[in-house]
Write a structure and sequence with these properties.
The strands form four sheets. Strands 3, 4, 5, 6, 7, 10, 11 and 12 form an eight-stranded mixed β-sheet that branches. Strands 1-2 form a two-stranded antiparallel ribbon. It is of the alpha+beta class. The chain has four domains: 136 residues, Acyl-CoA dehydrogenase/oxidase, N-terminal domain (Butyryl-Coa Dehydrogenase, subunit A, domain 1, Orthogonal Bundle), CATH 1.10.540; 127 residues, Butyryl-CoA Dehydrogenase, subunit A, domain 2, CATH 2.40.110.20; 139 residues, Butyryl-CoA Dehydrogenase, subunit A, domain 3 (Up-down Bundle), CATH 1.20.140.10; 146 residues. Helices cover 58% and strands 12% of the residues. Helix 14 packs across helix 18 and helix 18 runs antiparallel to helix 19. The two termini are 45 Å apart.
Length: 587
């Protein structure tokens, strides 16, 4: 059964990142009391909810998939009560404005909570994830009247939210969207069908607020002619009470590889008189409105990779301690220990990267002047790495969790395979990882000639100097490995920037390797930061077991994981033309 790794989380938040010193001085959080006491209280409560309420639902949801019959979705037993408990506890709007139904807390606390929900049950965790994303888009772009109607209800968990982008024939490229909107006085009528709508229908909350992309009759062609609309499941009366059912219904739920408990719906709008919708932002500016929430959404998808990996790791460790083979518990076998240590090292690296950049996100929103601008650039650079690298690693680590179980991992009754099946969607949705890699190279790296990445290189170089001077043999070894990985990454960055101007196809063919190389480098960077703090605490009388484990984990990462950077470097530099040279007819 899943137990949130609270000590690791608190160490990161309060000791490594120092959330009080980093965010406590911002006006946004001046009265919140950011610091260890708040961290402890929040993590303890989230840990209890995750372990006692959410985690027991993981196998229930897998065995009892959401289903649609006669225009109504039935979700797995226990999900509705748990969703309502999550909302009542203030977790949906934990980082949202206090005057709009939220808690007004730093994003890092929402990040930690999201990891817990995903570690406990990823299918369940998608419901608050979609709701908070819908609230962000409404906050940023809707009229004051619409905000007053919808924001507090969503942030409080009383209502839930969805995103309706994809259609048959309009996936990652939304230009071909065919769902149409017709003006009807002070509102619009929506007609069309959307697919892959996560938590598109259910009865766990009183209302569902759909954010729907649609095209007006006189709109420009392509993505520039798409508008965004709020389409509630139930219309809202002038006094705030719920009125008639809107013309928005689920047609079916998808039969999926994983996340069975999450209702992934085909949604039909306007099969009768037309679904009533309300414009968010300006006409023909819907994509810009929707993309407001993408950084937060993609951070949360990266957390799904982390959470699922942590759940798989915990189950694999428990099994390895109990399973005896050759007279020994298999955890004592060298290869099993290798797999488990690899899982632990990569999980801690991913967590440290995601939590650090959750703080960057708050600074990008609430800091002042040039500090704010610099952190906006940084979070834009970091998001495709967090989303892409963490989800790719999530698939690897949940697969290792199955491998630790041996044949029993391939048997569904153990539950090990579910982590792999559930997390497999994460490299696909919220922009496939190929799109993330292309975004990193084409937009985030090339837009400033690599200046943003150079700033990261400088921070990593400073860390290498600290590791070299630490006096810890393991950390000095990490420093040497980091120095080599940094040099390779610098060379790769310069090579790809030059290729963007001369052979764009081959440059883009190296984008995925570059994203993964960047992830491994950044993961080592963050583990090195954590290990240095642990080394200081060890000298100052900190928990010796905890501190030595942090140092050993970082040392293992340097010796066993960072060498992967070299492979990606060689694939990009030495294989620059092989992609073009391979004829399409040979595939």
């Amino acid at each position: 059964m899943y137990t949130a790794p609270l000590a690791d989380m608190q160490f990161l938040i309060d000791d490594v990142i120092d959330v009080a010193g980093t965010l406590g001085s911002l006006d946004r959080f001046a009265d919140v009391g950011v610091g260890p006491d708040l961290t402890t209280a929040l993590l303890d409560e989230a840990g209890k909810l995750g372990a006692d309420v959410v985690a027991p639902l993981r196998r229930v949801g897998d065995a009892h998939p959401a289903r649609c019959e006669d225009g109504k979705v039935t979700i797995p037993p226990g999900y509705g009560a748990a969703i309502r408990e999550l909302g009542a506890g203030g977790w949906v709007g934990i980082s949202a404005d206090a005057d709009a139904g939220g808690q007004g807390l730093p994003e890092i606390y929402g990040t930690a909570a999201a990891e817990i929900w995903n570690g406990a049950d990823m299918a369940f965790a998608l419901e608050p994830f979609l709701s908070s994303g819908a609230a962000l888009a409404i906050k940023a772009h809707a009229s004051e009247e619409l905000k007053a109607i919808y924001l507090a209800k969503i942030n409080s968990g009383q209502w839930s939210g969805t995103m309706n982008l994809t259609e048959s024939g309009a996936g990652s490229d939304l230009g071909p969207v065919k769902t149409r909107a017709e003006r009807a006085g002070d509102h619009y009528r929506i007609f069309g069908q959307k697919i892959y709508i996560t938590w598109g229908d259910h009865d766990a909350t009183e209302n569902i607020v759909h954010l729907v992309l649609a095209r007006l009759p006189d709109a420009p062609a392509g993505s520039k002619g798409i508008s965004l609309f709020i389409v509630p499941k139930f219309l809202v009366n002038a006094d705030g009470s719920l009125g008639d059912r809107n013309d928005a219904f689920p047609v079916s739920t998808e039969h999926k590889l994983g996340i069975h408990g999450s209702p992934t719906c085909v949604m039909a709008y306007g099969d009768n008189e037309g679904a009533i919708g309300y414009l968010v932002g300006e006409e023909n500016n819907g994509l810009a409105c929707m993309f407001t929430m993408m950084n937060e959404a993609r951070l949360k998808v990266g957390l799904q990779g982390i959470g699922a990996s942590e759940g798989a790791y915990q189950q694999a460790v428990a099994y390895a301690r109990e399973r005896v083979q050759g007279g020994l518990a298999i955890i004592e076998h060298a290869d099993v220990k290798r797999m488990l240590t690899t899982m632990r090292a990569l999980i801690e690296a991913m967590r440290a990267l995601a939590y650090t950049e959750a703080v960057t996100m708050d600074l990008a929103h609430y800091a002042q002047g040039e500090v704010r601008n610099e952190h906006r650039k940084r979070i834009d650079l970091m998001i495709p790495v967090i989303k892409g690298w963490c989800t790719e690693i999530g698939v690897e680590l949940t697969s290792l969790g199955v491998q630790v179980h041996g044949g029993m991992g391939f048997v569904e009754e153990t539950g090990a395979a579910q982590y792999l099946r559930d997390v497999r969607i994460t490299p696909i949705y919220e922009g496939t990882n190929g799109i993330q890699a292309a975004d990193l190279l084409n937009r985030k790296l090339a837009r400033d000639g690599g200046a943003g990445m150079e700033a990261m290189h400088q921070e990593i170089a400073a860390l290498v100097g600290q590791l070299d001077g630490s006096g810890e043999a393991g950390l000095q070894g990490l420093g040497r490995a980091m120095a080599e990985a940094l040099a390779d990454h610098t060379a790769t960055t310069q090579f790809l920037l030059s290729q963007m101007g001369t052979d764009r196809f081959n440059a883009m063919g190296g984008a995925f390797d570059y994203m993964m190389q960047t992830g491994y480098l950044f993961g080592g960077w963050q583990l090195g930061r954590s290990a240095l703090v642990a080394a200081r605490q060890l000298t100052d009388g900190g928990n010796p077991t905890f501190c030595r484990r942090k140092i050993a984990t970082a040392a293992y990462y340097g010796a066993r994981i960072l060498p992967r950077c070299k492979g990606h470097w060689r694939a990009i530099l030495d294989g620059a033309t092989t992609l073009s040279d391979f004829e399409l007819d040979w595939l």
